[in-house]
Amino acid sequence: MVKSILKGLDKIDVCLSFFEKGLICVSLSVMLIIAILQVILRNIFDSGIEWGDVFIRHMVLFLLFFGASLSTRNKSHIQMDVSSKITPQRFKPVIFFLINSFCILVNFYLLKAAWIFAGDEKASGSILFGQVPTWFFIAIMPIGFSIISFRFLLNWIDNIFVMLGYKRASADDHPVIIGA
Questions:
Q1: What is the count of structural domains for the chain?
Q2: Which residues does 119 contact at the CB level (< 8 Å), separation at least 6?
Q3: What are the helix and strand counts (H, E) for the chain?
Q4: What is the pTM of this model?
Q5: Widest Cα–Cα separation across the chain
Q6: Coil, strand, or helix at residue 147?
Q7: How far apart, in whole angstroms, are the C-alpha atoms of residue 151 and residue 68?
Q8: 133 in Cβ contact with 123 (< 8 Å)
Q9: Is the omega angle on the peptide bond into residue 175 within 30 degrees of 0, that is, cis?
């Protein structure tokens, strides 16, 4: 039962990762095309895309959250590396468990604040450009924090199984656990 739940969570994680990588590629490509068009239009035709700069600034949020989520998945997000270098190997799962617990708690509060912020933006009815409401781009904040929290939760579950004596299937697998 536990193995099937972990495999299900792993499938969700892999699909989410695939989706995020695709969105990062598309977002970055669109941003580059619009930025290049802006430069050409401004320097050659003394005009530009009215909403281009605002759009690019807000697309950075998408790149930021999807990149942070993938970093959390790979356990390569910003962390205090000193603890992992001075801590004996047998205590590392406990340290990482505590770190992930703290990260889940912090992400919960960031998610809550982002949700309130996005709701306030929606209630204000502000328009970012054209007919596109500001909340449409701000919605990535609660979505992004939710995905990052999910990834920290997977890392947290992974740490529990490691503390219980289970081993990872391989160093690259995440977070599938096999029997001891």
A1: 1
A2: 135
A3: 6, 4
A4: 0.84
A5: 67
A6: helix
A7: 10
A8: no
A9: yes
> What are the CA-CA distances from residue 86 to residues 77, 81, 90, 91 (Å)?
19, 9, 12, 10
pLDDT digits (tens, 9 = 90+) for 32-62: 999 999 999 999 999 989 999 999 999 999 9
pLDDT at residue 177 tops 90: no
What's 177's DSSP letter?
Answer: E
- Section 76-91 average pLDDT: 70
Residue 155: which of 3, 5, 9 has the closest Cα? 9
SS3 90: helix
Question: Can you give the residue range of the structural domain that contains 129?
Answer: 2-178
Does residue 64 register a pLDDT over 90? Answer: yes
- In the chain, the DSSP E strands lie at 127-129, 132-133, 167-168, 177-178
What is the Cα gyration radius of the chain? Answer: 20
Helix (H) or strand (E) holding 92: helix 92-124
What CA–CA distance (Å, rounded) separates 139 from 132?
A: 12
